[in-house]
Amino acid sequence: MKNYKNFSVEEFMQDAYFRQWAFDELSSDDTFWETWIQLNPEKIKIIEEAKSLVIALKVKPLAIFSESEISDGIQDILNETLENNAKANIFRFNWLRIAASLTILIGIGWWFMGKDRSTKVYFDQITSREQKAIHTNNGKKAITFELVDGSKITLEPNSELRYGNEFGDKKREVFLSGEAFFDVKKDSQRPFLIYTGKLVTKVVGTSFRIKAYEQDDNISVSVRTGKVTVYRQDRKIENNSSLSTEIVLIPNQKAVFEKEEELLIKTLVDTPVSLDDSPINTGLAFEETKISEVFNRLEGMYGIKIGFDKDVFSKCTVTAHFNSENLYQKLDIICEIVRAKYEIVDGEIMIFGNGCQ
Which domain holds residue 331? Predict the structure, then answer.
């Protein structure tokens, strides 16, 4: 097996197996390239560039020739087009740079056409079967669009969403680079999968945000409504098993994947929001209210479990009025009143203290 990890754009373009994949000529059982990309996310840009160039040039019939014939064709073109030996030496040392790739590959096509017209080597347009959809946001504001299944995506600046032509038909799979908010149309028969490097987010129908910029140290998935499953893909995939670590998120919970350590943890979003925006929940007022009731109100408001020792805090009451304070600010005030502290553990809030006298 070739060491594709060290391949450049030009080397991928000249690889027969890669070209077969680029033209969707491999059998449905051959998932080598999909798996390889998932396990080597740092090569995505190189793969995309090589695939785009191969498809754009449509050098599809080259796969029927041997590698030696292709090499001979390239050498003939170089010998015929280079003006002197100095240039030839430069190209022999590093003859497949991006700038030269287009010229060489186009030349190969015409070289084989001259050699054997019956092969019908020509550059035609991309067929609908090979088309892929790409949404790119290079602007300064978020853009919103709707997919064929009814799901709505808000793509943030410097972000890109890609998916195949089969999306919405047999499966719902997308690849995200950057940040986006997803409002997924519910479909229990076809789960919605978002690939972001080594992290996969799986949902049936819900709303959530994914932040997966290449330059960031981590990937985060924050849930707004519904339930989301997030898992890390193994380095070694056997028997189609791709689950290494799997966590389930509910509203106001967040999964963070540390890229360097490949660690997936569950925590809370930076600013939990109320799940019920009705007027009754715009403010909270407590008058000598038992602490257990206070925490129950907060649990119902934010959908986050709050754990505490009921016996220890049985004598604690709270008098406080809240308006625009976020959840953490509310907890700071409450804990100050009852002389306690809180910690976030596995997506839940735990209260610690000695209770009240």
Answer: 279-353
